[in-house]
Amino acid sequence: MGSFFLFGCKSPNNTDSISKLDSICIPVIDSFFQKVESNNYKAAVDDLLLANENIDLEDSGTVAMKDRFAAINQFSGTYRGKSLLKKKSINDDIAVYSYLAKYDKKFYRFIFVFYNNGIKTKIYKFLFDDTAEIEIEESLKLYM
Questions:
Q1: Residue 3 to residues 8, 9, 114: CA-CA distances in angstroms?
Q2: Range scoring the smallest mean pLDDT among 8-12, 71-75, 121-125
Q3: What does the alpha-carbon distance between residue 125 and residue 51 come to, in Å, rounded to a whole number?
Q4: 11 vs 28, residue with greater confidence
Q5: Given a cut of 60, is residue 123 above it in pLDDT?
Q6: pLDDT tens figures, 15-29
Q7: Which of 92, 109, 89, 91 is nearest to 101 (CA)?
Q8: Which residues on neighbouring strands pair with residue 115, listed in sequence order?
Q9: Rounded to whole angstroms, how far apart are CA atoms 105 and 6?
Q10: Number of domains the chain contains
């Protein structure tokens, strides 16, 4: 009975639980991945970023990021799906979702950061990398 209580009890500060932001953020993320799956990766990124009027699609950093994202989708093979790696939130102010994006030739980590400014929740940042592979290898090493 004691172990049931320990497993069934959640901390009030558990940031992995379902937050109010999930109902706003997850549909945006799902829409993004649906476009990637239909090979419409340019619209996936554009629509994601256009949801925040403060993001300038013509900014050199944004253009470079979009070019790198296009390269992933052109050279990594067919998109094969996603898996949620980690989700964190700070109250109902910030939510970060980290996904494993699977392609034929390799996998990537896609990170979506959302921010609630008190009026509206918007995408704040979209990041992607292939360093998850290194982190997985490091986590699997046996240390004596």
A1: 8, 10, 36
A2: 8-12
A3: 11
A4: 28
A5: yes
A6: 445 578 999 999 999
A7: 109
A8: 94, 122
A9: 42
A10: 1
Distance CA 55, CA 52 (A): 6
Domain assignment of residue 33, yes or no: yes
- Cα torsion angle, 25, 30, 31, 32, sign: positive
Backbone φ and ψ of 86, nearest 5°: -160, 145
What proportion of the chain, given as a percentage, has pLDDT over 90? 72
7 lies in some domain: no
Structural domain for 114, as ranges: 16-140
Taking each helix axis as running N to C, give the angle between helix 41-50 and helix 22-37, from 0 to 180 degrees, rounded to the nearest 10.
160
3 belongs to a structural domain: no
CA dihedral 76, 113, 56, 81 (to 10 degrees): 20
H/E segment holding residue 89: strand 79-90
Query: What span, in angstroms and rounded, lies between the C-alpha atoms of 71 and 16?
Result: 32
Classify residue 5: in a domain, yes or no.
no
Instruction: Say whether pLDDT at 95 is over 70.
Output: yes
Sheet containing strand 121-129, strands side by side: 79-90, 94-103, 107-116, 121-129
Its pTM stands at 0.80
For residue 45, the domain's CATH number is 3.10.450
